[in-house]
Amino acid sequence: MQLITRRENTSFYESFSDLIFCTLVLFIILVMILSLSVNEQVESYAEEQQAITEKLKAQKAELALLKRQASEERQRLSSMLGGTRFTSHFGDTYLYIVCDTVSDPPRYWPVPSTYFDDASTSFINETDEDQKKRLRTIRADILELTENNRSYRAEELGLIVRSFSFYETGELDKNFKSIGVDLKQTDAGLRIDSVYPSSAAEEAGLETGDVITHIQGIPLRQNGLKILTTEKNKTGPEEKVMLSVISKNQELRSVICKPKYAQEISRVKEVTRGSFNVLVNGFVDIDGNAKDTSDIIGAIKSKRPDLQRNQNETEIAKLIISVKDSLKIYSEVAKQVDASEFRPLYIGSLPELNIYVSKEDESGLIAGMRLTADEILQLVRAIGGRGAVLNWIVKDNAPIPDWVIKKVLEPSGFRDKAPLN
């Protein structure tokens, strides 16, 4: 009010005082406005942080649940499968147990996977003599490994049985998601070679032979595996992906699939080299060597017309060469690996193998595979040379059946000093 009633002859000092007063009032109003704005932003930021915190808690809870489920699954698999997996400072080394069911009677022998993996490596322009030197070096390395490192512990079993088929436990990996299929890149997209039980793919209705052409609208004709891996790993805990699929009957359909953490689809799975387990019968001649490729192609054409429809002669020939190379490796392993040389020195380092048996029939369950009494006998003979702990598990904690003692333990020479009854 004083500003309005000033006289015309107001002094300079009075005018200056009025100016300062007005400026101060405006400054106070501006500070109040800024303060209100900052308070609103702080409140909004706090709400966002709270939402992020709650989301992280939910994700942690879901991950903890998955880890618990994975642990329970691991324990279930471990109790079901038993184990012969060795761990030393060299890393994890599976002891494969090979079963050649083509031979009569079937032959069994243990093979450290380190040896097998190195032996299966091929080198350009390597002569037979060079390969023999390399195999001798590998054998010496394996001997040193087993003689000098005794930090072995029983875990899950890697078992090779049934006409050279590979059976192994599914790896538990929490770092990526999977839809549970084996894929092969084709010009049209990713062809499904196999679908794992209880996987996201099985739940979505995907089948062997289907071709995934797009994921989230992105074509998979080139670098399909890389694109699919990237897209499925982008998904949140409850998110799904849209797949465009061409069925075996050439029908185009859309499939909604929810990728799962790998822990959820851990299973015992069969891993074959091509159609190895299907084709191996007829591959081996009476002398134990692989037959000529032309003879095998003729046998396939006469016995397996379905394979001839799905694969041309060139593809079959490539498959046969792969199988023959593998047979050669097995043969080298059988000749050079003497089970007794890898015998551990004391009980704390012995491998363990769980064998589920019953009185009702003379068979046992090992790594999900049903073996007859004779097959168990051959297996026990093979691993018995190493020294081993055989856990004979009988329903209702009953004593070991007589057929196990008479048809397996006594003929094999295996001494059952501490039966688990």
Automatic annotation (TrEMBL):
<feature type="domain" description="PDZ">
    <location>
        <begin position="169"/>
        <end position="221"/>
    </location>
</feature>
<feature type="coiled-coil region">
    <location>
        <begin position="42"/>
        <end position="76"/>
    </location>
</feature>
<feature type="transmembrane region" description="Helical">
    <location>
        <begin position="12"/>
        <end position="34"/>
    </location>
</feature>
<keyword id="KW-0175">Coiled coil</keyword>
<protein>
    <recommendedName>
        <fullName>PDZ domain-containing protein</fullName>
    </recommendedName>
</protein>
<keyword id="KW-0812">Transmembrane</keyword>
<keyword id="KW-0472">Membrane</keyword>
<keyword id="KW-1133">Transmembrane helix</keyword>
<dbReference type="InterPro" id="IPR036034">
    <property type="entry name" value="PDZ_sf"/>
</dbReference>
<dbReference type="Pfam" id="PF13180">
    <property type="entry name" value="PDZ_2"/>
</dbReference>
<dbReference type="InterPro" id="IPR001478">
    <property type="entry name" value="PDZ"/>
</dbReference>
